């Protein structure tokens, strides 16, 4: 696909399209790459590393042409030469539309993912340095991405990167045992270092928009619109920050309406600074043996030890105190205003922006209208109607 983000140069950079090529032989990689126990993840990380190394000599075009948005690289491997230590399947295929970016390569391939979880029908994982998110998507989502990519790029350039839209960085197809898996890589909307304490997925609809009991039982549940209201949750920012956020939101939503896109959400994450400080004090009072064990365990592969990549940029900067963030890296973050009930950091961005109002959605709208009545605030509505209701709801989440 294309590069829309880099921590070594600027948060948003121009796309780097690729030429179409095919390879049928294994090529030894130049660097050690982490191998997951899941063959799909192993092939994904191998492919990202191999393709970026292979394409490092491809110059970035001065001007993008329509065909550049369709460019890709395919690799087919009949892998009988590999030893068992490589932990890769015997045969696999890899197709990529990816950025030519070493930082991106390091973040994705050098260490185990920070977290892997099942979400809906697929995987959702974050890179070991927590700066990138990899999400499993459908073949329909891939087609939708191709349909909007050119307009998406123009929108990002026109607003100079001042957007709440996801920052798409790469898209991949991994084929193992004749089963295809599609993955998309995005910048993490949440912080790489500030712990999240609450999380909401807001659509502006109140019908069936409450977290299930199973979801509420998780360590960090994803709450929804009804939960937001029932919890009497509010976002406490200055009037100036609210205007900036709503300006971005309105511009992005107008763009989505133009593309007939609906069913998107505002993802809201909240970091409670006071709670984080208390947790840090408790951790410092814990026995030294536990600290040593942590250092030898999870922390050993943490982003702080990496000399390169996005993590390298972060570790080279001055240390950040409790509740502090670098807006260059945490581009979706906003601090609570003076006088707020709690000192908080908010992370806000738009997600699930690939659903177009097609025949399937029209049918769902008709069915839900029959069930809930024409006046019910169901989520499946026409893009213009969805946008108006969404903006009205979001404008009221602020204190």
Percent of residues in helices = 25-40%
Give the helix tally: 11
Runs in which pLDDT lies below 50 for 5 or more consecutive residues are 1-31, 290-307
Taken from the alpha-carbon principal axes, the silhouette is globular
N-to-C series of helices and strands: EHEEHEEEHEEEHHHEHHHEEHH
Multimerization state = single chain
Our measurement of the CA-to-CA distance between the termini, rounded to an integer number of angstroms, reads: 40 Å
Main location: cytoplasm
Domain PIPK: 15-398
EC number: 2.7.1.149
Enzyme class: transferase
How would you sum up this structure in a few lines?
The protein has 399 residues and is an alpha+beta fold.
Describe this structure in words.
With 399 residues, the protein is an alpha+beta fold. 33% of the residues lie in helices and 19% in strands. The protein contains 11 helices and 12 strands. It has helices spanning 39-54, 102-109, 139-158, 213-216, 225-230, 239-258, 273-284, 288-296, 309-316, 359-372, 383-395, and strands at residues 21-23, 73-78, 91-97, 115-119, 122-126, 132-137, 168-176, 179-187, 198-202, 265-272, 333-335, 344-351. The strands form 2 sheets. The chain has an 8-stranded mixed beta sheet with strand order 1-2-3-7-8-6-5-4. A 4-stranded antiparallel beta sheet has the order 9-10-12-11. A hairpin with an 8-residue loop joins strand 11 and strand 12. Helix 1 (39-54) packs antiparallel against helix 2 (102-109), helix 2 crosses helix 9 and helix 6 (239-258) packs antiparallel against helix 11 (383-395). The chain is globular. Mean pLDDT is 77; it is low at 1-31 and 290-307.
